[in-house]
Amino acid sequence: MNKTDSKTDLILDAALPVFVRFGFRKTTMADIARAAKISRASLYLCFNSKEELFRAGSKRAHSRTMNDVTAALDRPGSIFDRITAAIRAFQEGLIAPFRGGHNAEELFAASNELAPDIALEARAKLMDLLTKALSEAEKTQEIDLTPLQTQATELAALVVAAMDGIKHTHDAGPEFESGIRLFMALLKLGTAPQLGQAGP
Questions:
Q1: Burial of 91 (C-beta count, 10 Å sphere; 0-12/13-18/19+)
Q2: Which GO molecular function annotations are given, in alphabetical order (predicted)?
Q3: What is the pLDDT along the chain (200 residues), one digit of tens a residue?
Q4: Residue-range domains of the chain with CATH
């Protein structure tokens, strides 16, 4: 990591709690500079505006989260355990940082307005990763999609829809965990191999 990247990360790290505390509209570049312990002039050398800084933070958060999701799906274990880990990684990376904040809805709205392309790119990658994982599980007969008359791509879209629903759960507490368990139980039940076709 070079000096510029290090300074950018320092600024983005400092900006997140400021946005969470004050919301996007009320946060100023002066607030962020103060939190990062740098001058406003130094801040403007890195970012021309609050909007540009917010986009950079969104891009970094999505990139890091998708790396964690990829690692979760690549790890050993059942397809259901790996998808569960991927959902948790998604929640922890993109939802948990705003947990308990009064400005969560405003920040999500700001993200949709200022960085929709970043979210769409991450969503497309997520679809590809899930489709690949589910296709491999089907090939090894860990799951059977025939009874559902569906394909890995369609099932991946269902998982993504569930992840989208998590955006409305700002507290990863018992309700969130119960939701994950119920969703995965239904997924496992619906894709269980027929008798005599169970995978290794």
A1: buried
A2: DNA-binding transcription factor activity; transcription cis-regulatory region binding
A3: 556 678 999 999 999 999 999 999 999 999 999 999 999 999 999 999 999 999 999 999 999 999 999 999 999 999 999 999 999 898 889 888 887 678 988 998 999 999 999 999 999 999 999 999 999 999 999 999 998 899 999 999 999 888 777 656 545 567 777 888 888 999 999 999 976 555 55
A4: 1-48 (1.10.10.60), 55-190 (1.10.357)
Q: Which residues contact 123 (CB under 8 A, 6 or more apart)?
A: 160
The 10 Å Cβ neighbour count of residue 136 is 14
Only one residue has tokens 């917010």, namely: 54
Tell me which amino acid residue 33 is: A
Could you tell me the pTM of the whole model?
0.86
Considering only CA atoms, which of 42, 76, 41, 55 is closest in space to residue 12? 55
Task: Tell me how far apart the alpha carbons of residues 79 and 130 are, in angstroms, rounded to a whole number.
Answer: 10
The tokens describing 8, both together, are 């950018």
